[in-house]
Amino acid sequence: MAKEPMTEYGYQKLCAEIKDLQEVQRPQIVKEIDIARSHGDLKENAEYHAAKEKQAFIESRIAELSAMLANAQIIDPSILEHKRVSFGSYVKVLDLDTDKEFIYTLVGTLESDPQRGFISVSSPMGRALIGREVGDEVSIVLPKGESEFEILEVGYKPLRFKD
Fold first, then answer.
1. Strand 90-95 versus strand 145-155 pairing type
2. End-to-end CA separation in angstroms for the chain
3. 137: β partners
4. Which CATH number do you get for residue 62?
5. Would you state the torsion angle of the CA atoms of residues 106, 112, 113, 118, taken in this order, to the nearest 10 degrees?
6. pTM of the prediction?
7. Which of 18, 33, 131, 153 reaches 20 to 30 Å from 87, CA-CA?
8. Dihedral of alpha carbons 33, 39, 42, 44, sign
């Protein structure tokens, strides 16, 4: 499996989630299963079946997070040069069709949140912007169709994620 770039923040966030699942939620669901089991007949015990489903979800999420962490490549964008768009770059673009400006920060897939301006380096927009510099025009095929953008600004600003 290919390495997945992410910031230290993203890595720590995944570590915190897996720790919560393993140390808080897993023991809690085991207790819930024991309580539900004590109610008798398991065939018609909705509490038991719901708890078992929740347990399966928790175990699945732990496995998923473990794989993500094993394949994580932590990158500190503050040490990268940002004359050209790269991981962690702050990019201001102008949509040449609508004359609207957009500001994006390129992050790892697991950290992307397009509504807040964090786009994945592997998204269509991210892939098209990587390696470009101020003044470049790029044509990007997006879900709404093909759009033309001009890069107005490239740089680095410390990432500010909100949970």
1. antiparallel
2. 28
3. 150
4. 1.10.287.180
5. -10
6. 0.74
7. 18
8. negative
Closest CA to 71 of 40, 44, 108, 97: 108
CB 103, CB 118: distance < 8 Å: no
Q: Letter for the amino acid at 159?
A: L
Position 162 in a domain = no
Q: Are 77 and 71 in contact (CB under 8 A)?
A: no
How is the chain classified by DSSP, letter by letter? ---EEE-HHHHHHHHHHHHHIIIIIHHHHHHHHHHHHTTS-STT-HHHHHHHHHHHHHHHHHHHHHHHHHTEEE--GGGS--SB--TT-EEEEEETTTTEEEEEEEE-GGG-BGGGTEEETTSHHHHHHTT-BTT-EEEEEETTEEEEEEEEEEE--------
pLDDT in tens, the chain (163 residues): 678 899 888 898 899 999 999 999 999 999 999 988 887 777 778 888 899 999 999 999 999 999 999 999 999 998 988 999 999 999 999 999 899 999 999 999 888 888 989 999 999 999 999 999 999 999 998 888 899 999 999 999 887 666 5
Kindly state whether residue 163 falls inside one of the protein's structural domains.
no
- Locate 86 and state its tokens: 């790269």
